[in-house]
Amino acid sequence: RANWNPLGQKTIRKCSLYSPMCWNANVDLSNLTCVSKYGGLIATVSSETQSNRNGIRPDITVFNAAGKEISAFRWNSGILIGIAWTHLDELLCLQEDGQVLLYSMFWHFQRSFTMGMECRENKVMEYEVFSSQHGTGLAVMTGLYRFLIVNNIDEPKVRILADVPGLRSTPPSSWCVLPGPRSSQVLAANESDIYLLDHSGQSTQQRPTGLNVAPTAYIMMSTSMDGKHLALYADTGSIWIGSSDFQEKYCEFNTNERSRPKQLLWCADSIYTSRNQTIGPSSSQNIALVVYWPKTILVIGPQKDWVRYNVDEDLNNRNGKASTVLCADVDGVHIINSEQHEFLQHVPNAICNIFKVGSMAPGALLNDAAKEFDKQSEKADEYMRMLLDNRQLEEAVEQCILAALDEFQPRVQMTLMRAASFGKAYVPNLKLTELFVNTIQMLRVLNAIRDFNTGITLTAAQYVLENLTMEYLIDRLILRREFKLAFHICDYLKIPENLGSSRILSHWACFKVQQKDIDDGKIAQAVRHKLKSARGVSYANIAEKAVECGRKDLAIKYCKEQNERMLKDLHEQEDNFIELAHCHIHNSFDTFRSDERLISLHSAQENFSRGRDDFGAKMTEEQLYLLAEQNKLEQELDESFVEKSLHDTMYNLLKTNHIKRAEHLRKQFKVSDKRWGWWVRITALAEQGHFTELEAFSKSKKSPIGYLPFVEVCIQNNGYTEVTKYIGKVALDKRVPALLKIGNVKLAADAALQNKNLSDLDLVFKKCGVEHRELGERVRAMMHQLTK
Amino acid sequence: SAPYLSTGCVNIGLIREESRRELLQLLDKFHGSKALVWDSALTEQISLIAEYSLLKERGVDRMFPLRGSRLPKSSVQHVVFVTRPVLALMDLIAHNIKKEEEGDGRKEYHIIFVPWKSFLCIQKLEDLGVFGALTHMEEYRLDLIALDSDILSMENPSCFYDVNIDEDGTSLYLVAKAITRIQKQYGRIPMLYGKGKSCKSICSLVQKMWIEQGDQSEDDHSQIDRLLIIDRTADLITPLVTQLTYEGLIDEVYGISNTGASFPPEKFQTSSKSDDLMTEKKKIILTSKDDLFAQLRDCNFNAVGPTLKKEAKSISEKYEERHSAKTVGEMKQFVSQMPQMQQAKASLAVHTNIAELIKEYTDEDDFMDSLSTQQDFLNGIGTDKVNPYIENCLFRKQPLLKVLRLLCLQCITNNGFKPKVLEYYKHEFIQTYGYKHLITLNKLEKCGLIRAQGGQWNYNTVQKSLRLLVEDINEKEPQDIAYVHSGYAPLSIRLAQILSHPGWRSIDEVLRIIPGPTVSGIQQFKPKKKWQGSVSSEGSSPSVVTLVFFVGGVTYAEVSALRFLSGKPDGNEYLVATTNFINANSLLKPMVET
Questions:
Q1: What is the reported pLDDT for B87?
Q2: Do B435 and A620 touch (CB under 8 A)?
Q3: Organism's domain of life (chain A) (predicted)?
Q4: B118 contacts in chain A (CB < 8 Å)
Q5: Using CB atoms within 10 A of its CB, is residue B164 exposed (0-12), middle (13-18) or buried (19+)?
Q6: What are the tens digits of pLDDT across the range B522-580?
Q7: DSSP secondary-structure letter at B581?
Q8: Same domain, yes or no, for B178 and B211?
Q9: Residue B467 maps to a domain
Q10: Regarding the domain with residue range A575-671, which homologous superfamily does it belong to in the CATH classification?
Q11: Which end of chain B, N or C, is less packed with Cβ atoms under 10 Å?
Q12: Coil, strand or helix: which one is B192?
């Protein structure tokens, strides 16, 4: 195993996760850079930060673990002095004035809090972000060398820690946070004196046990992630490595390197036998200290064993600064430079057992057996016999499965799983089968999310150690907007819709509606389609999100499916006046109470005016007016008028002989002469059979619409004999059709022959038929003559 | 089965078979005897796919319509509700299940959603407390229904409204899905064209879906050479103009849905049972399965009479043959033809009746007046002023849809109204029909059917360049597609015609004036040119097949016009796919406030 190095009883390895990286080769990690746990999100701040005071705003770029850019944005608040990822993959940005701003990885502002007045006045000099049981914590040192700590940034309660005794004008020579179960403390060194500071104002001096050489100062210190182990780096180049209560010394290691390391951190082993049965890395045997200077990484075991790695520093990098970033994870250390992303870890036991040279562990034997079997060698049988005789086959299968789970390379995973499957055939054990199936699922998921496109470097150990669940993983993917992958994973794992696919879809929908640069219609289309089949998706959520982002049109669409009231509220909120007016119009027709109706109409009118729809406003005014008239009429006449149009109202009045009242309306609403004279007046008359009045009306004034309508209303109301009264007044060109309408072919023919109009003649000819053959002949002759 | 579906240039029957197979697969999931409870809107659609006898073979013992009342008693094992994803129907289903459970609770309940399972419906069922009682909830993706040998329809009547008024593009996604289905069945279509609002996004969706479904080889012999997507908004004139073909007029007067139309029963009364009055409407299925209808459907109505006469003559001649039959063999042959002759006779009677009904309608003055007003507008006569006929209609409170149709047509042929004219019309409209129609007018404005002047659309230019007005139409032996409207050639179909020959490049300018984006040829892949090398046996080259997909609806007259083009011997064949069938009434009706 080429990348394996023994470290005392342990073996460590440095695996390359991504090489080369997706980013552009001149990416600069030497400024502020942070890497997240359980996934390896990377954020960098461009080195212009120094000129920040002059108003230059640094660029912040977020990459996935493979260096693929997720987002980039420009910092536009105060002076940025630090960034870190929280346990929820939010980017914590610390300003010099103690203001803390939290952003999503896509640069959506989440929330902010401040570390207090003291920070504003005296500035933040140094900071440390740590993980505690409560989540993510933050400690800062102010210009007065005082420490302030927030145990959990989700409940940002700032606690002031005790002052470091004996400090004068120089800052503490080094300090670090000591995360504790309830509250965290700070260890700070004033030269060679180390104090433990807590928030009750207590400071206790601590003395490392068994110190060989007393240093003049401790220039760097670091606690392990679980707060149990401590490393103190002295200016002599020697490191005291021991328990964080200073009671136990594991070893003292002299590096002979007096310069302050760039980074000092812990690499923890993760030991677990099978799922849910974990033994944390609490024992001193399971940890190693990692020290990084430019060009060198030194790994020191608790028994003074060490391994040294050379680091290729970025040549482009000016002034030989360290260009690599290390970040401790729960089961190893991420090492990232512009070229690659590596992972330093203790070789997991399961893998060690199988691949260690000369290992006789059951898993190793099974792996060999499977290999020989593939070669069709009889040795396979020998190995299997050994395992069967010692009743170790089940253990062997389990070891192979667990080893596969810890392996990064799919090729090796496959070999191991194949060996496990080979062995499993001999041991019918349901539990093993279950483990086997679960592991395969798990591996598929892990491999999928480790793909450079997604770039989440989650290890099986991280998954198991932190009791992560699939939901958590899905959440991570959602946060990264890897909706498709998340969806497929849910689908693959058959996670119930309400926990899986539907949840993803609703997140996806919320994300979609937040995209302001895309057309509403398109989004609605996309969202609606996808949600059609999904269960457990709340449209209200989406609508809410849409409003939040100013996508009102979208929200409206959901409300239409949900309820009218919400719809109105929305329009109201969004100043969508015309739509709001329409809602009020609907309301005015839905109610039977005239006061409510009036209120609705007034609101409609108001909204039309606000929306600058003059026509709408004018019509509403008319409607209000009409309504008033109708109400009056209803009281006077005991007849229903409300909801009728003006036309129908007048018509009804005329039919019941309330001519005066109709006239009144006509004047009030400036009804055109044509409308009044035409349908309303004469139709009403004809329909009641008041043909005498009709005739009188026709003579009262010259008709603005001609006299054909009189003919028509007479015909419609069976007043055939009346027609002759008007036919003489009908315009010549309309007389023939009028006569045909009353079925007087003879007169029509006469008129047509007189007019010598071809189309009239044609009309007459068609009507002549057998009955009027003679007439027909005459007409035809005339047509013939005319066409010549 | 339906052999008449398989007679076209592409075997449409395959789509039906596929849908049929899927339906049966769904039914087979419920092992044992079943009762189907139907959303009545689906019965007709599904009956186009599977007949009752087939369902019976699959254990369907009973069929009930979905109602609010209790289900009739039955001893089936499964009760399967077949429904559209409509919330109101969920109430009925829940009610049914609850009532049924009160009786014996040994039945299993299932729902088949057509054409998609909606989340909201399921949520509603959950709220109603019957979710737990349901064993299966399936989805029957009936995205295309074969209506005839050259017509596929999604039978989705709300497409135009959804897209243009509600701005809900779900239908467009479904269109892309339908196209993908067609491509799966008949091979990937090499060239994509389109005109109008949605065509671009549909094209890109179609391409995306093809990629997503993966591993489809491209050189599959594609039976369809090109796809032309026509978004209704690119041609709003055509549906507003009265259709004058036989089938078009039946649709205008009686309305055709799922290939069937209902007629007043009096006309079809058989004299023998005159005392037994028929009260239910007479429903007649109109497809090319009926030979006579196949002949008549595309005719201009003026040519229907002569065709019917000819048919009558030929039938009676055939009957006369019995006198000339002398030998036993000849008699036998005559007798063997009897069933067909009787069928032909019955069909003749039916269509004679229908034609008479239609004739009565077209002879009415209002019809003639409306038609001549339309002709005036199409000819650009008096479009800029308030039209006296429309005014009269308003004053006489004629049917609202009739007025709107003319109003919209005048508006579009005048490239929008002058502000004064527009306001006058709107005001008078509201005075006649009432204040709530302020909303109706607003919707019409939203989709561009009514608007003020402005914009690049210019009817006159389009009309001239595309030769939309054709004089001297021979309605009996038409020479141009304009016969379907007796002088007006549907703009949409002109576009299809020009695409085939000489190509859209010749009308670049006009395409720019017509609303919406243009897709003037996306090559999906290079087809093996089937007309090169392999000359078919007759020595003529195989025809080029164009699938015209109407998004937002197609009229029957447009289909007839395309059939007319297919019938020309220039080697072009057309298939029609559409979201639904429309006419002016069904286009405008959803926008009218009720």
A1: 77
A2: yes
A3: Eukaryota
A4: 532-533
A5: buried
A6: 888 877 655 444 444 444 567 899 999 999 999 999 999 999 999 998 889 999 999 99
A7: B
A8: yes
A9: no
A10: Vps16, C-terminal region (1.10.150.780)
A11: C
A12: strand
Are B485 and B574 within one domain? yes
CB contacts, 8 Å: A669 with chain B:
431
**Amino acid making up residue A213:** V
Which residue from A524, A536, A674 is facing B391, i.e. has the nearest CB?
A674
What is the CA angle A176-A220-A200, rounded to 5? 25
Q: Assess whether B347 and B292 both reside in one domain.
A: yes
Q: Chain A closest CA to B371's CA: distance in Å?
A: 16
| Secondary structure letter of residue A318 according to DSSP | G
Q: Is residue B125 part of a domain?
A: yes
Decide if pLDDT at A50 tops 60. no
The predicted-structure confidence for A703-717, as pLDDT tens digits, reads as follows: 777 788 888 888 888
- Report whether A237 contacts A257 (CB < 8 A): yes
Number of domains in chain B: 4
- Domain that residue B307 falls in: 246-362
Helix axes B419-433, B388-395, angle to 10 degrees: 20
Read off the amino acid at residue B589: K
For B328-371, the pLDDT digits (tens) are 888 888 888 888 888 899 999 999 999 999 999 998 888 988 99
CA A133 to chain centre: 27
Examine the domain organization and report whether B267 and B346 are in the same domain: yes
Whole-structure pTM value: 0.65
CB pair distance less than 8 Å for A615 and B442: no
Last residue of a domain, one of B345, B362, B379: B362
Q: What confidence tier does A524 reach under pLDDT thresholds 50, 70, 90?
A: low
Nearest to A537 among B119, B394, B434 (CB): B119
Whether A557 and B166 lie within 8 Å, measured CB to CB = yes
Query: Are B95 and B9 a contacting pair, CB within 8 Å?
Result: no
The CATH number of residue B187's host domain is: 3.40.50.1910
Does residue B111 share a domain with residue B127? yes
Q: What value of ipTM does the predicted structure carry?
A: 0.86
Residues B233 and B190 in one domain: yes
Cβ–Cβ below 8 Å for A705 and B428: no
The residues near B42 (Cβ < 8 Å, ≥ 6 apart) are B82, B83, B84, B114
The CATH code of the domain that includes B7 is 3.40.50.2060
Binary contact (A680, B395; C-beta < 8 A):
yes
Q: Are residues B133 and B15 in the same domain?
A: yes
Q: Give the closest of B117, B396, B433 to A645, CB-based.
A: B433
Q: Side chain identity at A107, as an amino acid letter? A: W
> What tokens does A104 get?
């999503």
* Residues forming CATH 1.10.150.780 domain(s) in chain A: 575-671
